[in-house]
Write a structure and sequence with these properties.
Layout lengths: L7 H13 L7 H6 L5 H11 L1 H4 L11 H22 L3 H5 L2
Length: about 100
């Protein structure tokens, strides 16, 4: 299977969009199903794909349970922090933009 070449900003967009409005996150399935070239981001994608089995809900009641959504928020927070660190930024410096 062909691997998608995306960066951490795009992964954050997928996650943030889903967290803001799960019902209209059309790209969510693409994120879950298409492997990512970058091994770190692929590990994150794989971690997200198991959330429904680790934190299940009844069919039709959402992607995963509330604890899974919290886990997804934490994944986004951790990825955002590592992205800022890589760029030599801090949360405060990004808020000033």
């Amino acid at each position: 299977m062909r691997r998608k070449e995306i960066d951490s900003d795009r992964v954050l967009q997928y996650i943030d969009h889903f967290l803001q409005d799960p019902k209209s996150a059309n790209d969510w399935d693409e994120f879950l199903c298409v492997p990512i070239k970058d091994s770190h981001l692929e590990a994150i994608r794989q971690r997200v794909t198991v959330l429904p089995s680790v934190f299940p809900v009844k069919k039709g009641e959402g992607f995963c349970g509330p604890q899974g959504i919290e886990e997804l928020r934490q994944i986004a927070t951790d990825l955002r922090a590592s992205t800022w660190e890589t760029r030599g930024e801090t949360r405060d410096s990004t808020l000033k933009h």
